[in-house]
Structures are given as structure tokens and as C-alpha cells.
Amino acid sequence: MVWEQRWHPLREEWVVVAAHRQDRPWSGDTVAASTQAELPRHSPECHFCPGNERVSGQRNPDYTGIHVFDNDHPCVGSDAPVDLDVPHPHYRNRPATGIARVACYTPRHDLSLSRLGVDTTHAVLTELATQYRELGARDDVDHVLVFENRGEAVGVSNPHPHCQIYATNFVFRTIANEAATCAKHHAATGRALLQDILDAERADAKRVLTENDSAIAFVPYFARYAYEVFVAPLRPVASLADLSDSERRDLAAALSDVLVRYDNLWQMPFPYVMAFHQAPTDGREHPGFGFHIELHPPLRKPELLKYLAGPEIGGGNFLSDTSPETKAAELGALPSTHYRSDP
Fold first, then answer.
1. Which residues touch 323 (CB under 8 Å, ≥6 apart)?
2. CATH class of the domain at 4-22+32-332
3. Domain residue ranges in the chain
4. Residue 86 has pLDDT above 90, yes or no
């Protein structure tokens, strides 16, 4: 048994690694495997499929590629109320303004980014770079958060392959903290913190899953979730929009490789939360910020969630039930061709 704490430099917090807990007896709840493999090519009930009516009453065009539209149930809005009641002097509030969008990867209801291949993934990343650039240029947008929630295990209500874009008048806390940490590291060393992380991972090589001319994917030394993966360009940049087209293609290849391995792990649509860590667009300098993609899968076994409980919610420190090196070896041993036939 090994009890170890590992420092997460981007979050500036300790992760407790107790990998022997992975095989402890379990009599609690489990989650059913996803049924995405049985979905139809087009669902008449899906609000995202081509030609269908959305909840707003608008009808989707008969799109054939990537389709981006304003979210019908946004978490922020341009007409957010300004005059808000404050119930107590010790409390504060402010308007939550911005734009929320949905980006459908494909018209096919039954596919996923893991099965769309490098070309489509590259096209998706190119569109997301455009969205970041255009939305981030607005004076009322301080941050553009791009994320995908995949699978019922993370609470997805619509399985149509898509991600979301939140362009807000505030910077989400994880990114704000990360920007501050990276700036502090840059001031002390003159280097980007992510670059030092990449150098360490490449030197160790135990947790690297794939690497090409300009991108890399790895299970970080300080991983919190069992199959957590970072995908990053080798050249330090602040955002997806700062990459060249060839670099975005390499990033797409690395990301696609990881998503295929995820599905191949248990031969099922693998759930995850994928977040694009990009610099805030608040008009301030963010020295040393390193764009990367983080994938946080909630499962530690095929039907067993990593629950956030006492140590995480109550204590504030993440407890990892697995070894990053072991999980990287599992993923690295899998084929990079999807277990299902071509769509």
C-alpha cells in the first residue's frame, strides 16, 4: 500500500493518492452502461438534429457539418437584470451577462467525437477557435469557456454529439485561479507553467499516451480522476485561436486518439467532462498561461463512479483511488482504432 500526496501545480493543491482503494469492497450504487451505440442516425425527438424544432420554437436548418446556435436555456444573458436586491449587507450579487451557444459536431445523432475521425475533429477545433476569437473580442465578454459533457453519468440530457460555449462577463473560477498561478510562475521563472509540466511528462514518459509533431496527450502525474487526461500543444499558447492550422490538426489527432482509447477501454461510449482551458479575454495580460484540454471521466470502473464525498466536499482535498501510472498504462496499451466499425 502506498499513501502519497502529489502537488497539482495548476490548481495549487495536494492530491491524495491511495490506489489500493480501487479494489475495496463496494455495495453502493452503480451506473448503467451508456446506450449511445443503439441510437438512431436521426431522432425526431432530438432538439439538435437537422430539421427538428427546438424548445424555443426555432427550427434547425438541414445542416450537414458543424452547426452552432444560441442556447435556448442559457446560463447567462445579455438582458440580465441590473437592479438586484441585496438581502443583507454581508451578501453581494451582480448581473450574469453573456452569450451561451451550442456547437453540434455532426448531423448524425448516433455518433460521437470519438468516432468522427481527425478531419472532423480538426474542423470542430477550427470552429471553436473562431468562436473564441469572435466572442472574446466583445467588450462585455471576459472569458470564453468551451466544454463538452458526454454521457448520462455526467448528467447529459441530450446525447446528440455537441459541446457548449459560455461567453461571460466573468472568468470562471478554475481559469481565474489558473491564470494567477501561471502568472506567478512566469514572474518567478520566465517560463510557462504548462511548458514545465510538459517537459516533466516527456522526460518521465510513463504517463504519455501519444505525441506527434506539435501535440501531446498524457495522464498527469497529479491526476485526480482515474482516467484523467491532458491534451496540449507542445508550443505554449494562450488559446486554441493562437495555434496554426497544422498545429490544430496535430491537436485534433492527439485528442481523437485519446477519445478512441477511452471508448476502447470497456468497449462502450466513455463518459467524460472535457474543458478547454484558455486565457481570459478580459483585456488584461495573462503571462505564462498555457492553453490545454482537460478530460475528467467520472468512472473508475465500468459501472462505478468516482464519488465526491467526505475528503473532496467536506475536506477540500481530492482523494484519488487509482495510480496515474497504472491508468496511463491501461490506456496506452489500447488500440488507437475504434472498436466499432466506421460510421
1. 2, 17, 19
2. alpha beta
3. 4-22+32-332
4. no
